[in-house]
């Protein structure tokens, strides 16, 4: 089953694992040492990360090492970018409006 990359980043443990293996390849035991959950629970998280293509597990001797494949995060970045562009345009319009308000004299009230 191919999982969605959004499922992978929805969980804080999986985000932490991605952060760890983004810098260097780590074996499963080293990853598990950083969490207060069981080794099988970490293996399930790794399996989900593997199914969505964010992590590749390679056998080296008796150890299994996890390597990041962060290209899949492009999908998340593209999705976020549409909202970044939307909000940047809205905030720029607000900035223009406020600048205009500050330079335009307000009408005097009649007493």
Automatic annotation (TrEMBL):
Pfam families: HTH_5. Residues 1-88 form the HTH arsR-type domain. Keywords: DNA-binding. PROSITE patterns: HTH_ARSR_2. One of its GO terms (molecular function) is DNA binding. It comes from the Bacteria. This is DNA-binding transcriptional ArsR family regulator.
């Amino acid at each position: 089953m191919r999982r969605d990359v959004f499922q992978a980043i929805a969980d804080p443990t999986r985000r932490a694992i991605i952060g760890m293996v983004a810098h260097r390849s780590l074996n499963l035991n080293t990853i598990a040492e950083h969490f207060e959950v069981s080794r099988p629970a970490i293996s399930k998280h790794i399996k989900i990360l593997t199914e969505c293509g964010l992590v590749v597990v390679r056998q080296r001797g008796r150890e299994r090492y996890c390597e990041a494949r962060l290209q899949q995060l492009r999908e998340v970045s593209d999705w976020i970018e549409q909202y970044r562009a939307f909000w940047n345009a809205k905030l720029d319009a607000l900035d223009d409006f406020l600048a205009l308000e500050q330079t335009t004299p307000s009408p005097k009230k009649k007493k």
